[in-house]
Amino acid sequence: MKKLFTFFLFFIIYLTNITIANEIKILFKLENEIITNQDVINEANYLISLNNKLISLDKKKLNQIAINSIIKEKIKYLELIKYFEIEESTKEVDKFVFKELYNRLNVNDLAALKQYFALYGLNINQVKFKIKVELFWNKLIYDKYYSKISINKEELKKKILKDFNKKKQIDEYFLKEILFNLDEGEELNTKFNAIKQTIKKTGFENAANIYSLSDTSKFGGEIGWISKLQLSKKITTEIDRIETGDFTDYIQVGNGYLIIKVDDKRKIKSQIDLDKETNVLAQKETDRQLNQYSTNYFNKLKKNIFIYEL
Hints:
- The chain is of the alpha+beta class and 310 residues long.
- The chain folds into 2 domains: 2-142, Triger factor/SurA peptide-binding fold (Orthogonal Bundle); 161-270, Chitinase A, domain 3 (Roll), CATH 3.10.50.
- Helix content is 55%, strand content 15%.
- It has helices spanning 2-18, 37-50, 59-80, 91-105, 110-118, 124-145, 153-164, 188-202, 204-211, 233-239, 274-303; strands spanning 26-30, 33-36, 169-180, 222-227, 251-253, 256-269, 307-309.
- The strands form 2 sheets. It has a 4-stranded antiparallel sheet with strand order 4-3-6-5.
- The longest helix is centred in the last third of the chain and has 30 residues, at 274-303.
- It is globular and about 65 Å long.
- Residues 1-10 have low confidence and may be disordered.
């Protein structure tokens, strides 16, 4: 209890130092959108609220992560307002927003949610906006690219049956991920080594915040528990080579690269619903392909937008 109190005391002191800017200054401009120093502070607080381990980073590194994160959000927002009335609040959108936050933060009601974010100097409307940007971005990518998704369910069923093979128990893993790609001029081993060094110095979760392109990045790369049947052979082969607590070498997935950390392992009874497992695996492959389209689409937008540093 004493340790918990000490942590929260330190935490409140830390937040007090980064909650309010002495003077509001415009740092960046993207078309008609601006980013101020207070926006960066709010973004840092938001990211910490989702991944408390970011507190261990020095303020310069945390500041850069926050800047990159909010620039990414602004670029998405500028594209989204061409298609959606994103500022309008609806019950359906709010339902998705709160469901996502309740699950991630393990809270049960709106009052608890508001109280949680208030500890970080954030109000619920600021948080709702951020989740809405991600929801509408995912809808945009889905609308644009779903017709291009290619899934062979019969092949997936064969894979599941082959992996199942009348086993009495099935492996499950608690996983975290870093999904990255190479920018122009980057060399794969150089970037992978840089990520490994960051993991060594600051931890896997913080490295996910810094490098990962996946939506899980804000939550330290956390995927959660997942059955071996729901993973590709390429990924399970790499997972089987490492011990609990370790992470894999980079794994090529489409045009990107994946690093998987195994936080825990367990075995469950081998009850299998072939149709259900096939649908789960198909959804994961759909998500992977959509994520690749999302990354490519975002990179095109970023190349065509001027970011003025003031």
